[in-house]
Amino acid sequence: MNQLFFDQIGRINDTLCAVNMLQWDARVMMPAGGSETRGQQIATLKAYARTMLLDDAFGDAAADALENADNESNRKAAEAVLAARVWHQRIPTKLLKRLDEQSVISSKAWADARAKGDFASFKPYLSEILVLSRQMADAIGYDEHPYDAMLQIYEPGETTKSLDTLFSALRKGIKPILERVLSRPQPRKDFLYRSYRVADQKAVCGQLAALLGLDMNRSRLDTAVHPFEISFTRQDVRITSRWNETYLPMSIFGTMHETGHALYEQGIDPSLTRTAHTTDLIGLYAVGGSSFGMHESQSRLFENHIGRSASFWERHFGLLKSHFAEQLSDVTIEEFVAAVNRCEPGFIRVEADELTYDLHIMLRARLEMALMEGSLSVDDIPQTWNEAIREDLGLEVPDDSLGCLQDIHWSSGYIGSFPTYTIGNITAAQIMAHFDATTPALRDAVKAGDLAPLRSALQKTVWQYGRSKSRREIIAGIGADPEDCSSYIAYLAEKFA
Question: Does the reported pTM lie above 0.85?
Answer without folding.
Answer: yes
